[in-house]
Amino acid sequence: NIFHHYRLRKGNIEKGLKETDFIVEGEFKFPLSAHSALEPHSVICRWEGKDHVEIWATSQAPFVLQQVIADMFKLPHSNVRVHISYLGGGFGGKSDVTIEPMLVYAAKFLPGYAIKFVCSRKEVMTSTVLGRGMKAQAKLGAKKDGTFTLFQAKLYFSDGAFGDTATNIVTVAGHNSVGPYSIDNCHVDSYGVYTNTPPVGAYRGYGHPEGNFISERLVELMAKKLRMSPFELRRKNFLCEGKKNSLGETIRDYNGNLFKCLENVEKELFSEPKPKEDDRYVYGRGM
């Protein structure tokens, strides 16, 4: 059932294991989620003759929609006109082409007439796309001083009956799962799997939250194991100018300053005293 396998390889895991003093590992789950935009998916379509079609859609990607319809119906792109009004929410769920081709096909039988379709809430959840849907196993290794030595992970994405809207998500989650850290030895396998659910598409970050959820939880676990501040552990391993990320790209100063970002976050987190615990709430701080 595997339709896509993304591989990330950097360094040598066996070498990393020999340099490792501590390892933390875990299993991680990110359940399937519905975007639940206030406005459901909706389409109006009208054909003018046999080779000109006009579409009004609740889409986040009008040019993608234009290209898909032109290719499907063998039309010049200039003969497909797409209108997009203000959206009542999308969150990525309207960036993939879902119900639009069905309406274009149906309208072809009534040239000159506009037809409209508005999904019910149930139809949005069963007939468009969902988001997330991941299970993963991963481990992080470090030296006694906190220097990361290895990262290894396997990610499995439940992507429904069709994989075309999920392939890039599987890839992005794989190469982002290492996080913003300099780690010499990385071994990641990310799999897209056919399952008996609606298809999975973009949802608020397009694979980045799933991947970074893994690495950030492992960093927190490692900080506890080393009895080290999670802020200092991150600073020790952040990517910065001159270092190479998991893809082999050399970081430049214009790529951003993680140290300054973390400094600002830490400053705000501790800018006020933590409230005292009471009968209703337990208070904490986290990043």
Please sum up the structure shown:
The chain is an alpha+beta fold.
Helices and strands in order, then pairings?
Elements: E1 2-10, H1 13-18, E2 22-33, E3 42-48, E4 52-57, H2 62-72, E5 80-83, H3 100-107, E6 114-118, H4 121-127, E7 131-142, E8 148-158, H5 167-176, E9 186-193, H6 208-226, H7 230-237, H8 258-269
Parallel strand pairs: 4-5, 8-9
Antiparallel strand pairs: 1-9, 2-7, 3-4, 3-6, 7-8
Helix pairs in contact: 5-6
Structure, explained:
The protein is 28% helix and 26% strand. With 287 residues, it is α+β, with helices and mostly antiparallel strands. The chain has two domains: 2-31 and 132-269, Aldehyde oxidase/xanthine dehydrogenase, molybdopterin binding domain (Aldehyde Oxidoreductase, domain 4), CATH 3.30.365.10; 42-127, Aldehyde oxidase/xanthine dehydrogenase, molybdopterin binding domain (Aldehyde Oxidoreductase, domain 4). A five-stranded mixed β-sheet has the order 1-9-8-7-2. A four-stranded mixed β-sheet has the order 5-4-3-6, with helices on one face. Helix 5 (167-176) runs parallel beside helix 6. The longest helix has 19 residues, at 208-226. It is elongated and about 75 Å long. It starts with a strand and ends in an 18-residue tail after the last helix. The model has no long low-confidence stretch (mean pLDDT 96). Residues 7-238 form the Aldehyde oxidase/xanthine dehydrogenase first molybdopterin binding domain.
